Amino acid sequence: MKCKLCNNKAAINLRAYNTSLCKAHFLSFVEKRVTETIRKYKLLNKGDSVLVAVSGGKDSLSLWHILTKFGYAPEGLYIDLGINGYSDRSLKKVLSFAKEVKARLWVVSLKEIFGLGIKELARVLKRPYCSACGTFKRYLMNRISMERNLRVLATGHNLDDEVSSLLGNLLYWKEEYLWKKNVVLEEYEGHLAKKIKPFFLISEREIAAYAFLSGIDYIYEECPYSVGAKTLLYKEILSRIEDQSPGTKLMFLKGYLKRLKAEKEGREQGPVSYCTICNYPSWGQKCVFCSLTERLDIPYKFEYKEYDFSK
Ligand code: AMP
Ligand code: FES
Ligand code: ZN
Ligand code: ZN
């Protein structure tokens, strides 16, 4: 198999694009597509202060790598969920990556705040682990972005994450979530950071290859609580469809984005209410984070650590 561009040995075959590329051409192919996404959807402007949420996995570390390469000098945020062994191993990867790119890293730990890890917190809330985890992660990412004045929050969500959650929303007609998914969510009146997903149109396989070929040292294992999650089943099914008809996933998501534009026209952003304790957006009077600290009856201790490798 030869690279379509230079005839050297190909490192990857991209059936959705009907091409094969060598290492150098593949890396620049991915970077070019990220640049196009950033430009087309107006994700970033020069001089933006960016916080990248990093889990230690291939997607978020590749994103940190690419945004650093593009000159945005992002800082990182790691949320320690207190999952036995897994969280420590992930943090180690994140710390050594932060050292490598000479960046500042923020680390917030659920155990340090609540004295409990995500498993125990989900039990208190009577919610499935992944759903409680998502709520905490969104809250912490947003709050720390705003507190650090890093007004653009970037996550490593990829094409496969997005199509699988889109399929889930369609299967169960979760219309309340369906039209909320986007490449970019704008900042909201000093309460919500601008949220961007530069890998929205890049597949998991492409990112895995990008991380591997760039020599990024990431954690291979998945979160132990994700075993059996529906999104993994949807990913598997969609990959089988992709095998039979390359390009389907990308078409599905691009079609969604086109319809989203029409859906949003004429619609105003719904009123957001604010937590009476922390003043960050919430569904009810109090946000989940503050309700929980009250329910657990522990003193409110919102803190996180700074590791500055930029000097
Ligand atoms: P996931 O929800 O695990 O599919 O992750 C989606 C994105 O959320 C990742 O690409 C990261 O940008 C971010 N993320 C997930 N877990 C963490 C974490 N523990 N700390 C910081 N960011 C995270
Ligand atoms: Fe959230 Fe596993 S429960 S990453
Ligand atoms: Zn080549
Ligand atoms: Zn609150």
Q: Could you characterize the architecture of this molecule?
A:
The structure is a single chain. A hairpin with a 6-residue loop joins strand 9 and strand 10. It is built from 12 helices and 11 strands. The strands form 3 sheets. It has a 7-stranded mixed β-sheet, with helices on both faces. The chain has a single domain, classed as 3-Layer(aba) Sandwich (Rossmann fold), CATH 3.40.50.620. The chain is of the alpha/beta class and 311 residues long. Helix 2 crosses helix 9, helix 5 packs across helix 6 (129-147) and helix 7 packs across helix 10 (230-244). The radius of gyration is 20 Å and the shape is globular.
Quick recap:
Helices cover 47% and strands 12% of the residues. With 311 residues, the chain is an alpha/beta fold.
Bound molecules: adenosine monophosphate, FE2/S2 (inorganic) cluster, zinc ion
Q: Considering the protein shown, what is the CATH homologous superfamily?
A: HUPs
Q: Count every helix, treating DSSP H or I runs of 4 or more residues as helices.
A: 12
| CATH class category name | Alpha Beta
**Which regions have little confidence, pLDDT < 50, spanning 5+ residues?**
none
Largest sheet: 7 strands, mixed
| Percent strand | 5-15%
CATH fold name: Rossmann fold
Gyration radius from CA atoms, angstroms? 20 Å
Strand segment tally: 11
Spatial strand order of the main sheet: 7-8-6-3-4-5-11
Helix and strand element order: EEHEHEHEHHHEHHEEHHHEEHE
Notable features of this structure?
311 residues, alpha/beta, Rossmann fold, seven-stranded mixed β-sheet, two-stranded antiparallel ribbon, 11 strands, 12% strand, globular, binds adenosine monophosphate, binds FE2/S2 (inorganic) cluster, binds zinc ion
